[in-house]
């Protein structure tokens, strides 16, 4: 059998909540041409001259609200997932961040230190849904670091798992206990994307955001359609838990800049919902498998304030899967199926 290693890939966080570290992180993140996809010089002027310097102090304050003794929640929870998974798989597991630390190269080198005759690495981008700015950049970065260092081991990737039954089961079971309370709506809030990115990722050039109900009509575009994949996760969870259609909400959070992003915007919905009679809200963020700034600060703190201020009465946030044993089971099943010759979960 091949000598293997596994890498859990997540987005990454600043090294600390100091403004200089947050600025450095924002620069690395937003200078990624798959995130801010403007021509290099325009991107450099916008990100280096405006966004990173102006946003860093505000983001640093937000990070301070959620930072833990061990560091950023996203990185700490990804490490905890590594520790939870390791006992169930034969191959060593490392973690890597697309931006910041630990880097992809560190992860490869850690695996090589443990397995000098490493033949194959399976990278698992921890994003259920495909987006150029999350899944695709993680994959392309992993390939670029692999090529630059002339590593000889083979590199494979787990594909977006938005509809995979073990993942859906884990997510549904994590939601189920919260549905025992009285609620008016359960809002599935996904990280947003510029609408332009959706059209850019459409290989047909004529489907996404161009056809009525584009995400609900069959199309080859769905393999790279973020909105379709978010919609599918929502439908599968609502079906598994038999949540009535009128109690399911769907929105997109974390907008940046002036372009139009996917709608409806979560922040706007949180202001509108109480006026529509939704006083008791349950909210979750299935675009993330690990809690992070966007779930702990934007949704659990700011979002709650917005909703209650608009007249809402109760606001329950469902945590991300983090180290949920069923989620660990899902990852274990994919890795063990692969070790037994199945390539179903590979890109
Ligand atoms: C679900 C995956 C993600 C997609 C898609 C995504 C797109 C995207 N993000 C920005 C800008 C920012 N995102 C920020 C934080 C952040 N984003 C994701 C995931 C996705 N982003 C995560 C997990 C996090 C949290 C990181 C953490 O340390 O906890 C930030 C930084 C924080 C802030 O200043 O608000 C920015 C900026 C864009 C522009 C984009 C698509 C074009
Ligand atoms: Fe983001
Ligand atoms: Fe679509």
Structure at a glance:
The chain is α/β, with parallel strands linked by helices. It has eleven helices and eight strands. The chain folds into two domains: 174 residues, Rossmann fold; 153 residues, Rossmann fold, CATH 3.40.50.
Relevant terms:
347 residues; 11 helices; Rossmann fold; 4-stranded parallel sheet; binds ligand L6N33NVT; globular; binds fe (ii) ion; alpha/beta
Structural summary, described in words:
This protein is α/β, with parallel strands linked by helices. The protein folds into two domains: 4-162 and 325-339, Rossmann fold (3-Layer(aba) Sandwich), CATH 3.40.50.1400; 165-317, 3-Layer(aba) Sandwich (Rossmann fold), CATH 3.40.50.1400. It contains eleven helices and eight strands. The protein has helices spanning 19-30, 40-66, 73-85, 104-114, 132-148, 165-175, 195-200, 226-240, 266-272, 293-309, 325-339, and strands at residues 4-10, 93-97, 120-125, 154-157, 185-191, 248-253, 280-284, 314-317. The strands form two sheets. A four-stranded parallel beta sheet has the order 2-1-3-4, sandwiched between helices. The protein has a four-stranded parallel beta sheet with strand order 6-5-7-8, with helices on both faces. Helix 5 (132-148) links the parallel strand 3 (120-125) and strand 4. Helix 2 crosses helix 10, helix 6 (165-175) packs across helix 8 and helix 9 (266-272) packs parallel to helix 10 (293-309). The chain is globular. The two termini are 21 Å apart. The mean pLDDT is 97. It binds ligand L6N33NVT and fe (ii) ion (2 copies). Keywords: Cytoplasm, Heme biosynthesis, Iron, Lyase, Metal-binding, Porphyrin biosynthesis. It is found in: Cytoplasm.
């Amino acid at each position: 059998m091949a000598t293997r290693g596994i890498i859990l890939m997540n987005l990454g966080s600043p090294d600390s909540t100091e403004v200089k570290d947050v600025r450095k992180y924002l620069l690395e993140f937003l200078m990624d041409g798959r995130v801010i996809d403007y021509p290099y010089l325009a991107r450099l002027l916008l990100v280096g001259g405006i966004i990173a310097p102006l946003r860093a102090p505000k983001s640093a304050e937000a990070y301070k609200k959620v930072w833990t003794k061990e560091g950023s929640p996203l990185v700490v929870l990804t490490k905890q997932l590594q520790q939870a998974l390791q006992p169930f798989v034969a191959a060593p597991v490392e973690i890597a961040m697309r931006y910041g630390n630990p880097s992809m190269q560190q992860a490869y080198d850690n695996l090589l230190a443990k397995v000098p005759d490493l033949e194959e690495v399976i990278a698992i981008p921890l994003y259920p849904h495909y987006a150029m700015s999350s899944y695709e950049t993680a994959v392309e970065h992993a390939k670029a670091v692999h090529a630059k260092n002339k590593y000889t081991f083979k590199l494979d990737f787990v594909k977006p798992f938005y509809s995979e039954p073990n993942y859906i089961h884990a997510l549904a079971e994590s939601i189920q206990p919260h549905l025992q309370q009285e609620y008016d709506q359960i809002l599935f809030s996904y990280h947003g994307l510029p609408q332009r990115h959706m059209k850019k990722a459409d290989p047909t050039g004529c489907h996404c955001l161009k056809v009525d109900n584009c995400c609900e009509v069959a199309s080859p575009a769905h393999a790279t359609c973020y909105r379709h994949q978010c919609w599918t996760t929502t439908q599968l969870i609502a079906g598994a838990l038999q949540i009535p259609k009128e109690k399911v909400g769907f929105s997109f959070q974390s907008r940046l800049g002036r372009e139009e992003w996917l709608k409806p915007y979560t922040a706007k919905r949180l202001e509108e919902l109480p006026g529509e009679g939704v006083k008791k809200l349950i909210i979750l963020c299935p675009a993330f498998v690990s809690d992070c700034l966007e779930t702990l600060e934007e949704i659990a703190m700011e979002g709650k304030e917005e909703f209650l201020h608009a007249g809402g009465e109760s606001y329950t946030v469902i945590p991300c899967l983090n180290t949920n044993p069923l989620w660990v089971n899902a990852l274990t099943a994919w890795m063990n199926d692969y070790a037994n010759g199945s390539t179903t979960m590979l890109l």
